[in-house]
Amino acid sequence: MQEVQNIRAPGWQRVVADLAGSVPDDRVYLLRLMATLGQVTGASQGVLFAMQAGSGEAPTPEVVPLQVWPLPGSLLDATGKLGVPIEQATDPSRLDPKLIDRLKDVLSAARACAGDKQLRVFGMEDAGFYDAASSGKQFIIAVPVPAGQPHESAGLPPRAIITLLVDGRSKQALQSQLALIELMAGYAYGHEAQQSLRRAKQAGASIDLAARLLAAINAAEGFRACAMQLANDLCRLLSADRVSVGWLDGSPATWQGRTIPGATLKLSRRPIALRAISDTEHIDRRMELCRVIEGVMDECLDQEQTVLFPQPIAGAGGDTVLSQTIVHAHRELARNDANKSVASFPLRIVTSKGERFAGVVTVEASGEAGGAKKPGTAGLDPQMVELVQATLDLIAPVLAVRASDDRTLPQRALDSSLRAAAWAVGPRHTVWKVAGIATMVATAVLFVGKTTYRVGAPMQMVAQERRTLVAAVEGQLLRIGDGVESGARVEAGQLLAQMDTRELLLQLAEQQARLSQFDKQADDALKRGDAAEAAETRYKADEARARVGLLQRQVEKSTIRAPIAGTIISGDIKDKVGATVKSGESLFEVADLSSVVVRARVSDRDIAFIEVGQTGQVSPKSDPSLAVPFRVVRITPLAQAADGENTFEVVGALDGAALKEAEASVPQAGNLFLVNQEGQAKFDTQRRTFAWIISRRVIDQLKIWLWW
């Protein structure tokens, strides 16, 4: 009978605790497993090999030595614990091959074990290396560390290979040790299960936290409100002192990016802007605190990773990545409180082209140095930092969508255009490529494409037949005709106004009496034979007769009638009835509006392009979109000075059919072509290239200046 009391010895309890304990890093666990196996088996040396995927002509996995046991003194601190980052301790490039005893034999044993994934024992003799337990002086035990869960490990390559160099012993003792080694190697399944459980818990916690934050964000209106809601809710959920949200200015296409292998994304970062601080309504970025927080966010973006201050302890069981970050700005933010911890989390958005950073969330919390929590505080330790970063990774795409929707329409249109252009010409140098293509197309259109050169000139609509009626004599305006006013339609011969003729009639009667008297005196003188008196009297009679004719003409002109059928375009004289009007004073202006012509003032620089019979279009100022064709009928060959330049008068006739068509399609078109209506006339000349049209005036001016 054998006593089994020693199974619960303190040494075995420590072994079980080391192998079953939770270790966040797989590399730390593998080093611990190698050390435990070496101590239990009494090995003189252990070597940890990593599995490296094969490539090229060697598709099978290859083994790479990572570290030896006992660990070299350069990796240990004063207490005998690992004193360097785990990345450095397991870097194969830092391992000196001379530290491995029997390197060739150990590599062969590791390769053989990796091939069949079985625990192997190799004996060594002077005759050579063979696969069997023998009575030699030393053995090499190759231990495969399984990957995945028990039901998955059969189809997966080993996670690692551990070789142990042990002294020779009996076959029975060796079999007992192999059974114990297999038992301890099986603890790797427990470690894998703990890692899976930890990841599942962390994912569940981050999803739960993200769901609560997303629910609050979606209820906010506008990106600024979303950022404020995120800062307030995250501060409350983490029991933090202050939470700040920063966002990169510009469109998503200009955000800082980290290239994924095989992608071509390479962007420079824009300055970050502080958008929200928890429990703060208004933010003044000129304040010193805001500038310090933005400096903290810039420090996080420059490193493209999470930053925690105070930094966690490096080495076994610690977070090596967080321990190696630069924290100058974070230390400056926490300088007034020795117990304050500051963490900055980049807002990452993963796309098919790479990983982009849209902003940063900075959390400030009170806690003991080293991550110990105070009651009711956030306790920013590496585990909490990892949880918050996973949560923000879920929230960042939603914030990016809200920020994009909050931009102005021109900004969104520009961003969409850039994406479309990147799809068409490629993601690199998109703007330059599009600009080059546009320049080539524009050059071709300018020098090859032709269009009708159109000369523009101000124009005025005038009536083709127009009459001005004035007062023939000075006198009193007795009355005006019925319905006579500006805009009234009149017929030829219609009474427009009547002057008072009573005084003229009296003068006419007097002159007629004098005429009769002089005629009688002339006849009497002839009867007496006095020729001289008869001639003098006849002269006076002729004078009286002329005055009678003049007075009769004035009486006739005192009745003013329309000379043509048309419209009174000026002459509202109702207020002058009973008043005296002077001779020659304008009373009415009558025009035939059924026939209007275009009178354009063409500059002397363009008159050479105008010819009789040429066509064009006129557009009134009241409706520039309306264009009615016309034809040039007359060019006045005399220039007139107007508005600082010489102009020639060009008269054109409107196309009646086109005008009627315009009046039918646009009811008010008929009112747009009234007398004295102004607008713009365009004359159709020769067909010219766009380059000639654009540069003509410049070239002409240069010819004048340079005497070409």
Task: Provide the descriptors you would attach to this structure in a database record.
single chain, 708 residues, alpha+beta, Beta-Lactamase, 4 domains, six-stranded antiparallel beta sheet, 27 strands, 26% strand
Strand content: 25-35%
Largest sheet: 6 strands, antiparallel
Rounded to an integer, what's the Rg over CA atoms? 54 Å
Total beta-strand segments = 27
State the low-pLDDT regions, or none: 1-5, 126-135, 259-268, 368-378
Overall shape: rod-shaped
Instruction: Give the C-level CATH assignment of the largest domain.
Output: Alpha Beta
The assembly state of the depicted protein chains is single chain
The helix count comes to: 18
Distance between the termini: 127 Å
Tally of distinct domains: 4
The third-level CATH topology of the largest domain is Beta-Lactamase
CATH superfamily of the largest domain: GAF domain
Q: How much is the average pLDDT?
A: 79
Spatial strand sequence of the major β-sheet: 2-1-6-5-3-4
Which secondary-structure class do the elements indicate? alpha+beta
CATH architecture title of the largest domain? 2-Layer Sandwich
